[in-house]
Amino acid sequence: MHNTIIYLIGHYGVGKLTIANRITAVTSARLFDNHLANNVIFSLIREDGGSKIPDAAWDLIMTIRRQALTAMAEIAAPQASFVLTNALMEGDPLDRLAYDEVVATAERRGSTFVPVFLSASDAAHAERIPSADREARLKMTDAAGAELVRHSRPLLAVEHANRLDLDTTDLPAEEAAQRVIAHAAARALNRSI
Length: 193
What we know:
Helices cover 53% and strands 14% of the residues. With 193 residues, it is an alpha/beta fold. It has a five-stranded parallel sheet. The longest helix is centred in the middle third of the chain and has 20 residues, at 55-74.
């Protein structure tokens, strides 16, 4: 993979980090998981995976994200590739801004940008959300709350020529990663033609 930004987007517990880890394990891509930024703040305000996060926390998290994107655009090697993860909801201005800033970073780098939207069944989410691993990473662990978010807040509406949609309900993470990698490679090839 060469100068590609893959953006894995999906609701809580859909498998974003698991798939991202599989992608980075078989490519030279670097991971910027949303909790890398979030947990700087969450760990200080004792976010527990179930209670509402104070609105003021998101502005601080956006500052951290912007610095990371600046590092990608201005300092990282030109050939470097990245995998980002996020739960971005339609109707949330900060989520739209977060997406737009990643697109702008890809444009600044001249990167192939690949937004990947992940989904899964309610049963898969209910099984994945209340895990000890998610709790340790300060992620959402309230299955009922996560279900409410899924049903009341759709993912960000995005139209992009490189978009890929994957249902992870019965798709092993390794296979999902391979599909994303193959799709990104095909998009990068088409871009260079």
